[in-house]
TrEMBL record:
It comes from the Eukaryota. Residues 144-241, 242-330, 333-421 form the Ig-like domain. Residues 485-505 have a biased composition (Basic and acidic residues). The chain crosses the membrane at residues 432-457. Keywords: Membrane, Signal, Transmembrane, Transmembrane helix. Pfam families: Ig_2 (PF13895), V-set (PF07686). This is Myelin-associated glycoprotein-like. SMART domains: IG (SM00409), IGc2 (SM00408). Residues 1-24 form the signal peptide. The lineage of its organism: Eukaryota, Metazoa, Chordata, Craniata, Vertebrata. The keyword Transmembrane helix applies. InterPro entries: Ig-like_dom, Ig-like_dom_sf, Ig-like_fold, Ig_sub, Ig_sub2, Ig_V-set. Residues 460-523 are annotated as: Disordered. The keyword Transmembrane applies.
Amino acid sequence: MRVSGKGLPLACLLVLFYSPVSDAWTSMLPSSIQALKGSCVVIPCSFTFPGSRDSWGGKFSVAWYQYRSRGYPEIYNSKSQGSILSEYQGRTEVLGDLEMGNCTLSINPVRSEDAMSYYVWINPDSVKHRFYDVTVRVDVADTPSQLEMSDPGLLTEGDRTLITCSTLHTCPLAPPTLTWNFVGGKAATVQERLAGGSWRTESGLSYVPSHKDHGKYLQCTATFPNQQQSSNGIYLQVKYSPKNAVVAVVGNPNLKEGDSVTLRCSSQSNPPAVSYRWFFGPRKAPLRAAGVGPEVTLADVRRDSGPYHCVAENDVGMGEDSPPTYLNVEYKPVILPQGNCTLSRTGEIVTCYCIAEGNPLPEIEWRLPNRTVPGEFNSSELQAASVSWGQAIIGILTGPTSSLTNVSCTATNQHGPSQITLPTIQAGDTTLLLMASGGAVGGLLFFSLLGTVIYKVTKSRKKGQKKEEDEEQEDPTLYVTDENGEQKTSLKVEKPSRSKKKEEQFNMYSKSKGGGSPAADNDLSTKAYESMAVAEDYENVSAGELTGLYGNLGNWQPASGTDQIYSNV
């Protein structure tokens, strides 16, 4: 008989197996029963009587006795509580309906000294039947019985399963509570009555296994009324398709163009993966020469090789694509053809631009007929600055025409230098800008980087000009000597306003406001530069902030080709 839930209706305990009417008095008890110290024990008991019920007059009475060779020590009496042994008072109770032939006894809580034999007597005052011939032996245990768990065997991810946990006891009034150390499943508990006064409490855990459960210890714990606990568990074995695939470089990850490299695909799966698929490029084209093994060797890698992906498969199924893996292919600097030297409208100032890419990031150097200028330089005559992004670097050099003739740009990294002589163009030639802005984002990025470099150069030039002005400025107060030889202070000479000085100050990036103005005579810019406005607009924007406007672009690796830096951003 199985009863759901923790609480047991009293009726379930009082079901009789026999008719109380028979030819003679009989009592039925289990020969022995196991009790847990500190818990309760319910001893099933039934009896029969001869003749009809009416022949026995009033209600039945019952007494329970310890089985002793001498005397009749009572542990329960339905008529008088005063006659029972003091150590049993308040601990014994008959749960059954005597009128239905049920004399079931409860002892609660059980003590160690309760371990002995007992017997029942119906109507002890009048019935002379030898009830002591049928006894029950109560054995008291200090610890609960061991839990039993079902073994689900090898589970499969995604397939629902049921795992059961059960324990035996003899206290249906307060059965043990079963709990699981698992979150995510559904557990249901049932009580089942067995023969001989034993009960089974069973909990079934229904859940859908995940690959994360593989190797975990699943534990079931029974807590008894005396707060003692008993536990048991199993290690879960879950089959699942490959997870967390990743492509890694075998050996030195730093490569040079033309090298060979071996890639390995690894994943987590149970059972292990048996085949692999390889893909490359942004569209994940199949890598046909890769085969189905976990490793693939690539020959003659280029700077634009990859990215590479892999997919692992086992007998459960196919896993997900690995994240893209980019190769760190180092190469000698490449100077892009967009660089040139631009003459101002007056022909007095030259501004040179140089754009290069390489891995590692190259450094720019300017070669003049009689000297070499580093990428970061500032003097009263020449100013140079550069800004990098990813594997690209943009440099700018400005100075008088007399100093900047036959300018070459050199880009160098550990794999060697590259050099190009820059062509000279007149202001107003938009070749550089049109080539640089091959893509919408590329053009915007180019102007941002270029604006940053221009700002750095302009700031250096302005500092030099301010220093010269401060050195040339004199005391505006004049002293004169009159005809009597006395010295007098003249009227103070008017000092030019800052705004006026600023208008007259040389600004090679100011917008032309009309013919003949100093700004127009010295303008190095064309209308294509007007969007950058005055260089002061960049004073509060660092190179890092400008590049930050376009997201995390630091991992970009431009492919070979002259327009990749602008069109593939």
